[in-house]
Amino acid sequence: MPLDETNNESYRYLRSVGNKWQFNVEDVHPKMLERLYKRFDTFDLDTDGKMNMDEIMYWPDRMRQLVNATDEQVEKMRSAVYTFFFNKGVDPVNGLKREDWVEANRVFAEAERERERRGEASMIALLSNAYYDVLDDDGDGTVDVEELKTMMKAFDVPQEAAYTFFQKADTDKTGKLERPELVHLFRKFWMEPYDPQWDGVYAYKY
Known about the structure:
Blueprint: H1 9-16, H2 30-43, E1 50-51, H3 53-64, H4 71-87, E2 96-97, H5 98-117, H6 123-135, H7 145-154, H8 161-169, H9 179-191
Antiparallel strand pairs: 1-2
Helix pairs in contact: 1-5, 2-5, 3-4, 3-7, 4-6, 6-9, 7-8
């Protein structure tokens, strides 16, 4: 069944505000296709070609074991992960098939652009800020390289990626990551059209 406003939250949102955007796979760079499919395969823990919410929630639960965060912060992170991936097309009952993953990502990206144009809250910022709160182990309001390593470990990414990620994200070169910098990099790497300058962000895992 093709994705549309009857079975995908991002299409539903776009149509509700009069946005008629439609997916065309030819608009997606081959490198971005490769990146997205690698990401899907990381989440598809039982390799059945379908991503479900239980598999999604494995990752924040894994992070919970690695951080010094309050129960409230962890539950906020779990809620943000659920909301983010629900809007990204992972149905709580039926999951999301691998063959629909790229389209689900691209329509989500368009929905994010629409929310930005309309001054509405960003789903990327929601997720990024929830991660930020649990990563900020010393509570100083910023994230350093050592704290970033925790995120890499939690998501099964080589910890050396913390250095490449940090280098790209720390745009003001303060040696600390602030909230907007994390949001900016997530958006550039996962949501915007392919740009080779971001290839090494996760130490080439994606």
